[in-house]
């Protein structure tokens, strides 16, 4: 079996709460980016007729700005345990997390590598989450003075525009990398189904998140793939 061919056995990786929150986050982020483009450069003035003119673009931008704030609350309401686990893992770092990056670089450039045991979120996903949290704080925090300039000193409003641009610039870079690694890169591609349906191939999950998978096997939630292999060998 190759790294990209898996059996039809699937396991639940993400809850409905995460799937909904992730979808709202992704849609609102790209909508914010698109509606902002004609406001930042004349190169994208052709978008104004599509967005309902300058006023329509600003209105849509504000609507999606509100939506951009909601994913964390959606996840909190629909699956508080999942949100808590995410927060806990972001502040938990071990030797294996550093080893992950060494093997990840080998995998990225096509060299032989080994899977380092990871928990529910691997070290790369933790870094991605931390950077996204930072950029979200910049984007949302700077957005308020831009939206309500009369409530803030002029200097803060001016710096808010700078912070907003920096935040979105960093966020776009992270998102591009995230899309490449989760959708385009062949070894990570099966994980993409997880954020759409909540399910991923069992073999893939065991390879990439071994510690988490083994914990679920002990709880009786996932099939023991090693036991199945041993039975085939003995047959």
UniProtKB/TrEMBL annotation:
CC annotations in GO: formate dehydrogenase complex; plasma membrane
Source species of the chain: Mesobacillus subterraneus
At the top level of its lineage, which domain of life is listed?
A: Bacteria
Q: Which PANTHER family match?
A: FORMATE DEHYDROGENASE GAMMA SUBUNIT (PTHR30074:SF6), FORMATE DEHYDROGENASE, NITRATE-INDUCIBLE, CYTOCHROME B556 FDN SUBUNIT (PTHR30074)
Q: What is this protein called?
A: Formate dehydrogenase
The keyword Transmembrane helix is assigned to this record:
yes
| Bilayer-spanning residue ranges | 20-40, 60-78, 127-147, 159-181
Question: What Gene3D superfamilies does the record tag this protein with?
Answer: Transmembrane di-heme cytochromes, Chain C
User: Any idea where this protein resides?
Assistant: Cell membrane
GO terms in the biological process aspect are:
anaerobic respiration; formate oxidation; respiratory electron transport chain
């Amino acid at each position: 079996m190759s790294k990209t061919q898996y059996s039809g056995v699937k396991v639940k990786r993400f809850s409905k709460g995460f799937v909904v929150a992730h979808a709202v986050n992704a849609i609102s982020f790209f909508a914010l980016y698109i509606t902002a483009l004609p406001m930042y450069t004349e190169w994208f003035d052709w978008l104004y007729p599509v967005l309902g003119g300058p006023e329509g673009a600003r209105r849509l931008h504000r609507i999606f700005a509100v939506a951009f704030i909601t994913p964390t609350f959606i996840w909190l309401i629909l699956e508080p345990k999942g949100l808590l686990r995410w927060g806990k893992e972001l502040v938990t770092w071990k030797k294996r997390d550093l080893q992950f990056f060494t093997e990840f670089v080998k995998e990225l450039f096509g060299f032989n590598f080994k899977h380092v045991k990871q928990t529910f979120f691997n070290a790369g996903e933790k870094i991605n989450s931390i950077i996204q949290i930072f950029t979200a704080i910049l984007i949302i925090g700077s957005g308020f003075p831009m939206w309500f300039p009369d409530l803030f000193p002029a200097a803060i409003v001016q710096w808010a525009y700078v912070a907003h641009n920096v935040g979105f610039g960093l966020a776009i870079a992270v998102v591009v990398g995230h899309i490449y690694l989760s959708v385009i890169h062949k070894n990570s591609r099966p994980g993409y189904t997880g954020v759409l349906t909540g399910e991923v191939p069992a073999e893939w999950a065991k390879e990439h998140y071994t510690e988490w998978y083994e914990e679920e096997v002990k709880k009786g939630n996932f099939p023991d793939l090693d036991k199945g292999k041993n039975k085939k060998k003995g047959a």
